[in-house]
Amino acid sequence: MPSGPALQSQAVLTPLTSAAIFLVLTIDPGGEQAVRDLLPDLAGLRRAVGFRAPEGGLTCVAGIGSDAWDRLFAGPRPAGLHPFREVAGARHRAPATPGDLLLHLRAARMDLCFELAGQLTRRLAGAATVVDAAHGFRYFDDRDLLGFVDGTENPEGRAAAEAVTVGAEDRGFAGGSYVIVQKYLHDLAAWNALPVEQQERAVGRTKLADVELDDAVKPPDSHVALTGVTGPDGRERQIMRFNMPFGSFEGEGESGTYFIGYARTPEVTEEMLRNMFVGRPPGTHDRLLDFSTAVTGSLYFVPAAALLDDPPPAPSPSAGGTAAEAVTRTAAHAATVSVPDGSLAIGSLKRTPAR
Ligand code: HEM
Hints:
Number of strands: 14
Distance between the termini: 18 Å
Low-confidence stretches: 1-6, 319-330, 332-355
Bound molecules: protoporphyrin IX containing FE
C-alpha cells in the first residue's frame, strides 16, 4: 500500500463471516437530517456493540443510494453513482427495487449483528423505513443453498483492494467503493431434482471438491463462464462477493442467496449481470437463473470512513451548509489523498476503530 495520509476505507474487505444482516432502507420525506446525524455515529455504535464480544469481529459497512445522495449532500457526487438499472433478458429479469441506504453488518455471531441492527433501526425510526432485511448464515463450508461453495474465486490481498477501492480516477471519493445487492429466491425442489452432474454444468465447478470445470466441458451458459469478464487490456475484471444464504419456513417458505458484490466501478458488476440475464452472446442466459429468481436489486456508493465521520454539507443552507462549501470540502478531501503514481490512495485495511 502507498504511504501518505491514511484514507481508511470502510470494512469492505472482511473475510467471509458466519453471520450477516443486510438492511435496505428508504429515507422517509423529512428524514434526511436524522440520517445525516447517524452517519458520524456509525463507527462508535459499531465499536460499542463489537467491544462486548471482540472475538466476534463485528463490522458495519454503510452504502448510500443515488437519489439519497442528492437528498443528503450538496456538492460533487461519486462519478459512478446511479440508480440500479434493471436488466431484462428474454427469459429472466433483474428488477430495480427501492433502496436509499444499505447497512451490511457482519460478525462471527448473529447476536452482534442483531444488536447493532436493532440500535441502528431504532435510531432511524420515523426517519427511514426498512424495506428489505435478510439474516444471512454460513451454510456448512461456505456453500450456498444450491450446495456449492460460494466465494472461491474472489480476489485476494492487494488484488482485492484494487478490485473494490476507488482510486485516482475519482480523487474526491478515493477510498470508496460501489456495491450492488440482489436477493435471489431458489426453486430448491427443481434444483435438487437435477442430477449433480447437471448442477455442476450450471455452475461451472464440481460440487463436492469445488474445482472449476475444464474449458472443454464448461458450458457457455454456466455461471462461471458468464461472470468471467475482461477489460480492453485483456485483464480479468474482478469484484468481491460476500453472498450469504438466508431463508425462513413461514407459509410456503422462502430461501435463497443474498448476492452482494463490491467493486471499484459498478460497470464490472453490471457487465456480469448483462451476461447472466441477457447472455453472452444474447440468448445464452445463466443456467442458474432457471432455478433462481432475482426479487430485489439496488446500487450504493460506500464512502471512505472519513466521509461518514465528517459528511459533506446538507443540500439546503437551512440544513447546515451550502453547495459552495461542499465543493471546497470535497476539494480539500481530494488534496489529502496522495496518489503520486496512480496507485490506490488507501491506508491500511487492517482493523481500526473506523470499522
Ligand atoms: C443466485 C445467485 C448466485 C449464486 C447462487 C452464485 C453462486 C456462485 C458460485 C457457486 C460460484 C463459484 C464459486 C466461486 O468462485 O465463488 C460463483 C462464482 C462467481 N459469481 Fe456467482 N452466484 C450468484 C450470483 C452472482 C451475481 C449476480 C454475480 C455478478 C453480477 C456473480 C458473480 C460471480 C463471479 C464473478 C464468480 C467467479 C467467477 C470465476 O471467475 O470463476 N454471481 N457464484
